[in-house]
Amino acid sequence: MAKVLMKGNEALGEAAVRAGCRFFFGYPITPQSELPHYLAKRLPEVGGVFLQAESEVAAINMVYGASGAGARVMTSSSSPGISLKMEGISYMAGAELPCVIVNMQRGGPGLGGIQPGQADYFQAVKGGGHGDYRLLVLAPASIQEMVDLMGKAFELADKYRNPVMILGDGILGQMMEPVEFPEMLDPASLPDKPYATTGAREREPRIVNSLFLDPVELEEHNLKLKEKYDHMVAEETRAESYFTEDSEIVLVAYGSSARVAKAAVDQARAQGIKAGLFRPITLFPFPKHQIQEACQNAKQVLTVEMSLGQMVEDVRYNLEFRIPVHFYGRVGGMVPTTRAVFDEIKRLVDGEVD
Amino acid sequence: MLRVEFDEERCKGCELCAAACPQRIIVMAPRLNTMGFHPATVTEQERCISCAFCARMCPDVVITVRKEEKKRG
Amino acid sequence: MITVFERPKSLTPAKTHYCPGCTHGIIHRLVAEVIDELDVREDTIGIAPVGCSVLAYNYFNLDMQEAAHGRAPAVATGIKRVHPDKVVFTYQGDGDLAAIGTAEIIHAAARGEKITTIFVNNAIYGMTGGQMAPTTLVGQEATTAPSGRNAETQGYPVRMSEILATIQGTAYIARVSVHNPQEVAKAKKAIKKAFQIQLERKGFALVEVLSTCPTNWGLTPLAAMKWLQENMIPYYPLGVQKTPEEVEV
């Protein structure tokens, strides 16, 4: 299939359709609105449903209902809207319902701004909603990767019966790149979901639920969920390593920040500095073994984020505090420049910072 | 077969059935069921007119009501 | 002997957790009887709310989903859009539907979702301990209105059926009561109509059922029925608020 030039948000929409998603429920918010715009036109063409809900809260609960009814379903939003969806996300994790949630992050907190940000890392990776649960969090860094990960996201959601979040940012949503799409997956070809409420025809009724009033049962349920999360940790980590084999300094960044970091690494290499980039693609589960391997020769690590330091905590933790981990971040919609990141690399390598 | 039958173990003794009975034949038994309620009961079965008002008012679906089949001819 | 009244098939054999004399049991049974009579048990998906009827999924012998507080109409929307040929209903209390879930019910109605809602209004929060509900009457005591609801500071009870009847997307809105066998029969008729409206794809249908809460009202089940009749019905008049015929006029 030939490559087409497409905006990130629209490419995600087409990728969802190709992955067999026929149901979208959402509420408008900048900077992700091109995704619902695209699906509002595209889904009816393939017999699907696009519905603009009255709120983010309603949208995620529509996703809950549709997923509980057996459908591949998604929603998308940006930071403040994702906060509103947290109720439904926790319920879906509790009721073990698959879905895909796109977060095109913008600056926060509160209403924040509409320019790109990466300050929702904690919310996406550590919880956000109430209770012991985890989202599988995928962090693409290009439009092609967004497209590829969209298919993967639906696959993983069904495999683990768990919500999956695609954690992008305003840059990835708005930028254009050539992409190639996979073949269309026919949703009818997907296996039946044994939990789906479809009407109790010649079988026992099914109940979609996250309520366990008996603490013994609720603990068992939590332990069962934990087992799934442990499986994710064991089997689903993904990452990209770039020039890390001989690197004295390894940059760690995801999403748009990783693109900037990669350019800074190239610049450093051009000047003879042994710099490399480690880019986690799954943020939960965090690619622990991969980062340890990538940093085995590193004397120091520099984490770059569009936040005041969120993922950096996981970088330190997963490197078991054996290597100094430094941080460079911009916030509020400000994007780190290649020059600034390169300067930071140079400063660290030259020993200006201990 | 009884005209009106109470699943006494499910009865919560709320008396809504007794108040609805036009024949006033439903009483709360002096005995307690395993939930600790005095269950509704009818001793004068022959006075029951099978109107099912009691069953319609019962929140716990305790009551089954039957009537004689009409003889043809 | 022929049986004139027995347990409907759309109810499970489970004993309910409801207090003695709580009319939730009557309303559950009416919904189940209607589903049996329309022969749609195997095509029906119900949504349980948060509140006293949170465990309704244990009592209806149907596929069920448990919704977050107030979100049942959104969950129902998701299900109905995936399975437009199935029968989808929500069962919600007054806190669920008229307070925390006001946006969801209004907009499900506005979209004309082809779903049926059973709205149980007992003018109080039962499950959490007798707090004031959006439908608590002025002067009615509640644990969060110990001197009775004060209109000056706590405002006025909401008449949801009247509000919903003004929305174009609604096809059928009725308010009924279950305080005596005659009213129970009428309530069943209305509930049946609300399901038929859905089967005929005419639009959103809701039946508000005035209900008692003997425990939190501090009354015996019989006295609670009398209180409902004397206090709730004057403020929440019974009757059909809107029917498809009216829509067509």
**CATH topology-level name of chain B:** Alpha-Beta Plaits
How many extended strands of chain B? 4
- Strand tally of chain C: 8
CATH class of chain B: Alpha Beta
CATH topology of chain C: Rossmann fold
In CATH, what is the class of chain C?
A: Alpha Beta
Give the H and E element order of chain B.
EHEEHE
Give the SSE string of chain C. Answer: EHEHEHEHHEHHEHEHHEH
- Determine the most extensive contact between two protein chains: A-C, 39 and 36 residues
Mean pLDDT of chain B: 95
Please render the helix and strand layout as text.
The complex is a heterotrimer of chains A (354), B (73) and C (249).
Chain A (H helix, E strand, L loop, with lengths): L3 E4 H11 L4 E4 L7 H12 L3 E4 L3 H13 L4 E5 L1 H17 L3 E7 L15 H6 L9 E3 L4 H18 L2 E7 H5 L1 E4 L27 E2 L6 H21 L3 E4 L6 E4 L2 H16 L4 E6 L1 E3 L3 H7 L5 E6 L5 H8 L6 E5 L8 H12 L5
Parallel strand pairs in A: 2-3, 2-4, 4-5, 5-7, 6-7, 11-12, 11-14, 14-15
Antiparallel strand pairs in A: 1-8, 6-13, 10-12
Helix pairs in contact in A: 1-2, 1-6, 3-4, 9-12
Chain B lengths: L3 E3 L9 H5 L5 E3 L11 E3 L10 H5 L5 E5 L6
Antiparallel strand pairs in B: 1-4, 2-3
Chain C lengths: L1 E4 L18 H14 L6 E5 L7 H4 L3 E4 L5 H11 L4 E7 H7 L1 H9 L5 E6 L29 H4 L5 H6 L4 E8 L3 H19 L4 E7 L3 H4 L3 H15 L3 E4 L1 H5 L1
Parallel strand pairs in C: 2-3, 2-4, 4-5, 5-7, 6-7
Antiparallel strand pairs in C: 6-8
Report on this model:
With 354 residues, chain A is α/β, with parallel strands linked by helices. Chain A has 2 domains: 4-235, Rossmann fold; 239-349, 3-Layer(aba) Sandwich (Rossmann fold). Chain A has helices spanning 8-18, 34-45, 56-68, 79-95, 121-126, 143-160, 170-174, 215-235, 255-270, 288-294, 311-318, 338-349; strands at residues 4-7, 23-26, 49-52, 73-77, 99-105, 136-138, 163-169, 176-179, 207-208, 239-242, 249-252, 275-280, 282-284, 300-305, 325-329. Chain A has a 7-stranded mixed sheet with strand order 3-2-4-5-7-6-13, with helices on both faces. In chain A, strands 10-12-11-14-15 form a 5-stranded mixed sheet, sandwiched between helices. A two-stranded antiparallel ribbon of chain A has the order 1-8. In chain A, strand 14, helix 11 (311-318) and strand 15 (325-329) form a beta-alpha-beta unit. Chain A is globular, with a radius of gyration of 21 Å. Chain B is α+β, with helices and mostly antiparallel strands. Chain B has a single domain, classed as Alpha-Beta Plaits, CATH 3.30.70. Chain B is 14% helix and 19% strand. In chain B, strands 1-4 form a two-stranded antiparallel ribbon. A two-stranded antiparallel ribbon of chain B has the order 2-3. Chain B is elongated and about 45 Å long. The two termini of chain B are 24 Å apart. Chain C is globular. Chain C has 11 helices and 8 strands. Chain C has a single domain (24-248), classed as Thiamin diphosphate (ThDP)-binding fold, Pyr/PP domains (Rossmann fold). Chain C is α/β, with parallel strands linked by helices. Chain C has helices at residues 24-37, 56-59, 72-82, 94-100, 102-110, 151-154, 160-165, 181-199, 214-217, 221-235, 244-248, and strands at residues 2-5, 44-48, 63-66, 87-93, 116-121, 170-177, 204-210, 239-242. The model of chain C has no long low-confidence stretch (mean pLDDT 97). Chains in contact: A-C, B-C. Strand 9 (207-208) of chain A pairs parallel with strand 3 (63-66) of chain C.
